[in-house]
Amino acid sequence: MDSLPNALSPSLHLDHPTDEENNAIWKLTSSAWKDALPEDAYLRESAYLMTVPLATDGGMTQWVLVERTAPPNKRFLLSSCETFFKRSWVSSPDGNVTEVVTHGVASVHTDSMYRGRGYASRLMKELARVLPTWQIDSTEQAQCIASVLYSDIGKQFYTRLGWRAFPSSHIEFAPGRAAEVGALSPAAPAQPLLTEDLEQLCKQDEALARKALATPTVENRKTRFMIVPDHTHMLWHHAKEEYTCQMIFQNKPHIKGAIIGDTGNRIWVVWTHRFYEPPRPTGTASMNTLYILRLVIENQDALNAGSGEQYDLQVDYLQAVIVSAQAEAAVWGLHSVKLWGPSIHVQQLIKRTGIPHHQEEREEDAISSLRWYGEGGAHEDDVEWIGNEKYGWC
């Protein structure tokens, strides 16, 4: 296509697609991202997800690389993506916590007929210049500290463009009925979390997480960074899972997680169901996964101690919520349960539960990547990404 502009041309710029262009983009992306949905349902889902928390009221912005003078609906859609406005925190080593803004970059796509010409790189370079001031009110103190993305094409492409790859690991558990999983049966079963439970728990999680960030660090002199695990993030994931499950099963998941313990010593998880492909018969391998969006352990002192009566209680409690997740995965025919970004302390606690699992360092897909706009460097040696769990993905 000789009529296509050069990727370095000054005639190219970022714009926002029209509704008609959105539909064209969604049709182009359907083969890669529709998961278990038929194409028409995926198109409806894409429109629907623009109306739910995290995306609505300007939370999600769509971007397209186009020629500046070309008329809408008749221009080449050379490359596209979307960004999400995310509340975040940064904490200095002395425990000074500041609320800031992070933009999550998602759904970067270039039509196959336009690939190999540098358009995706140009899109990301333009975006990198725009995002530091995008949706930032100059009358307020909040600043954009970073943008994040989760690369499914390895580490090199986005690192070259300034989004540096951070450690990306998860722990995986097999599904199974409660009586079948774990080396031991839980001392007490966890209680299910329902939709109406989540808002208050997320507020409590926010308070706990901010308190932890406000604790000064002695040996670790890194800047700590965290996307706030707020209710809107959970709602976005649940809106996506409910839409998919309603289409496939004519039924929606009602259990959103599991919790156990008394206030101050509780452990809970919030999860989501992901169907990458149509359900398969029991015992048949698939990519379908129950993701633990967020793991909360209230008593961090006991967790950090690594031993003692309260720590032993945490072992029992963590075992109970994991067993609940495994049982939920079995009910919905999901192939695995995955927990992203477990800390060293959580890894040790999981080992103590006796539940079979394996840990994986991701090298090609869902690579956590960070572009830093704050002070200091953007490397893992300079910034510690706290709570890098599935809730932050979009």
- Indicate the radius of gyration in whole angstroms: 22 Å
**Structural class of the secondary structure composition?**
alpha+beta
Q: Give a count of the beta strands, DSSP E runs of length 2 or more.
A: 16
Helical element count? Answer: 9
Sequence stretches where pLDDT stays below 50 over 5 or more residues:
none
Number of domains: 2
Features:
7-stranded mixed beta sheet; Acyl_CoA_acyltransferase; LYC1 C-terminal domain-containing protein; 9-stranded mixed beta sheet; Aminopeptidase; 394 residues; alpha+beta; single chain; GNAT_LYC1-like; 2 domains
Explain briefly what this protein structure is.
This is LYC1 C-terminal domain-containing protein. This protein has helices at residues 19-33, 39-48, 119-130, 156-160, 195-213, 231-249, 300-305, 309-331, 344-353; strands at residues 12-15, 60-67, 79-91, 97-109, 144-151, 164-165, 169-173, 191-194, 223-227, 255-260, 267-274, 289-297, 336-340, 358-361, 367-372, 383-385.
